[in-house]
């Protein structure tokens, strides 16, 4: 590996990032690693001799080694900043990274549970602590029923219970402090009613949080993740389940049944319909599986 001390421009650049721009040691380490890749790829070519076609070749080589578009975008950003710094000091005549874009990464679709897997996850499960079990079921039923974000769920206070239990809806404070009203299904209302009756056994006096941890205060996002993962393992689900997966499952299953993307956008609290459109891909995957399983010509091979 190249020693930054042996390359004065790189050493000076990293020192400026650390001392003048106050970047963290972790960020500096990332910059060092990315820039050392550049030096290793350039070999005997001096920095001032690198041109656009060299950088394109380096990007192609790294992509061929398996680096994703996102990783290459980060590398190019680091390289571009370094050459900009060199140019300001007259050490290079032009920035060879200008105009170069990384290859696009395939868009990762959010993972959703099937309807059967969700039903399994929300089955009754034996637990050493029935109070925590009641809380967990209420949390996860509400996640799936209303498509909440993890931060929105842990921020709920007890004052939402009245409208949830009597009117079947919940008012949620989402991103950018935007309020939205979301329906709550009967199964979630039943689970919340059971939890509301038992909550006092766990909550500290005067605690406002709807969902509390073992110490009686507001439950942490990490604890919600841990309890959901524990539940999935105990029920024998063969996949890693995280809270956001329940939000994705809610959106995917509602779309499969209704096809109403605008309504899902409102319920999820997306500012733009573009954020919600990813679920049309999930829905198409479901439709494609149904087609392949049911259509008489779906698996017909072309005649030679």
Polypeptide structure, described:
- The chain has helices at 8-19, 25-42, 52-64, 69-88, 115-121, 130-146, 150-154, 161-167, 186-198, 221-234, 243-258, 261-268, 273-276, 278-294, and strands at residues 169-173, 179-183.
- It is mainly alpha-helical and 304 residues long.
- The chain has a two-stranded antiparallel sheet with strand order 1-2.
- β1 (169-173) and β2 form a beta hairpin.
- α2 packs across α4 (69-88).
- The longest helix is centred in the N-terminal third of the chain and has 20 residues, at 69-88.
- The protein is elongated and about 75 Å long.
Name some characteristics of this structure.
304 residues, mainly alpha, two-stranded antiparallel ribbon, 56% helix, disordered N terminus, disordered C terminus
Q: Mind telling me the C-alpha Rg?
A: 26 Å
Mean pLDDT: 81
How far from one another are the termini?
56 Å
Order of helices and strands: HHHHHHHHEEHHHHHH
Count of β-strands: 2
For the biggest sheet, the summary is: 2 strands, antiparallel
- Helical segment tally? 14
Instruction: Return residue spans where pLDDT drops below 50 for at least 5 consecutive residues.
Output: 1-6, 300-304
Q: Roughly what fraction of the amino acids lie in strands?
A: under 5%
Structural class, from helix and strand content? mainly alpha
Shape: elongated
Q: Helicity level, as a percent range?
A: 55-70%
**Main β-sheet, spatial strand arrangement:** 1-2
Oligomer: single chain
What's this, in brief?
By secondary structure, this protein is mainly α.
